[in-house]
C-alpha cells in the first residue's frame, strides 16, 4: 500500500475517533475502511451474503485476514479489503470480538 494512502487513512481514523462515538482504533478502522458497509454495525450482519463478525475469536479473525491477504483464502472483496486493513488486523479483531453477536 502507498504510504501516503496509509497516512491519509490513519489521519481519517484519528479524526473519526476524536470526533465521534468511536472509542477504539479497531472500531474507527472498521468504520473508516468500510467493513461496516458489508459486515454491519458492530459486526452484526443482517445480509446472509456477508458473515457476521461480532463475538468471533480474535486469533481466528486475524488469521482469516492474513489468509485473505496472502491469497490462501479467496474472495474478490476480501482479498482487497484485508490488504487495506494491514497493520490494523489485531485492533479490528479485538474490537469485533467483544461485540455482542445478538442484535
Ligand atoms: C464489499 C463487501 C465487504 C467488505 C467491504 C468487507 N468484507 Fe469481509 N467479507 C465479505 C464477504 C463476502 C466474506 C465471505 C467470504 C467467503 O465466503 O469466503 C467476508 C469475510 C470476512 C471474514 C471471514 C468471516 C468468515 O465467517 O469466514 C472476515 C474476518 C472479514 N470479512 C473481515 C473484514 C474486515 C475487517 C473488513 C474491513 C477491512 C471487511 N471484511 C470488509 C465482504 C466484505
List keywords for this structure.
single chain; 103 residues; mainly alpha; Cytochrome Bc1 Complex, Chain D, domain 2; 6 helices; 59% helix; 0% strand; binds heme C
Walk me through what this model shows.
This protein is an all-alpha fold. It has one domain: Orthogonal Bundle (Cytochrome Bc1 Complex, Chain D, domain 2). It has six helices and no strands. Helix 1 packs across helix 2 (25-32) and helix 4 (58-70) packs antiparallel against helix 6. The chain starts with a helix and ends in a 6-residue tail after the last helix. The structure holds heme C (HEC). Heme C binds next to helix 3, helix 4 and helix 5. The site of heme C has 20 residues, from helix 3, helix 4 and helix 5.
The biggest sheet amounts to: none
The CATH homologous superfamily is called Cytochrome c-like domain
Rg calculated over all Cα atoms: 13 Å
What small ligands are held by the chains? heme C
Q: Low-confidence parts lasting 5 or more residues at pLDDT below 50?
A: none
Write the H/E string, N to C: HHHHHH
Using the coordinates shown, work out and report the CATH topology: Cytochrome Bc1 Complex, Chain D, domain 2
| Count of extended strands | 0
- The domain count comes to 1
Report the CATH architecture: Orthogonal Bundle
Mean pLDDT: 91
CATH class type: Mainly Alpha
Helix content, binned percent: 55-70%
SS content category: mainly alpha
Report the portion of residues in β strands. under 5%
| Shape verdict | globular
Amino acid at each position: 500500500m502507498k504510504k501516503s494512502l496509509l497516512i491519509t487513512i490513519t489521519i481519517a481514523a484519528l479524526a473519526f475517533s476524536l470526533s465521534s462515538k468511536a472509542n477504539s482504533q479497531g472500531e474507527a478502522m472498521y468504520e473508516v475502511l468500510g467493513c461496516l458497509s458489508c459486515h454491519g454495525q458492530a459486526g452484526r450482519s443482517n445480509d446472509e451474503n456477508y458473515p457476521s463478525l461480532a463475538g468471533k475469536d480474535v486469533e481466528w479473525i486475524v488469521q482469516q485476514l492474513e489468509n485473505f491477504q496472502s491469497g490462501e483464502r479467496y474472495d474478490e472483496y476480501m482479498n482487497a479489503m484485508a490488504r487495506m486493513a494491514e497493520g490494523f488486523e489485531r485492533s479490528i479483531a479485538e474490537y469485533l470480538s467483544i461485540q455482542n453477536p445478538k442484535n
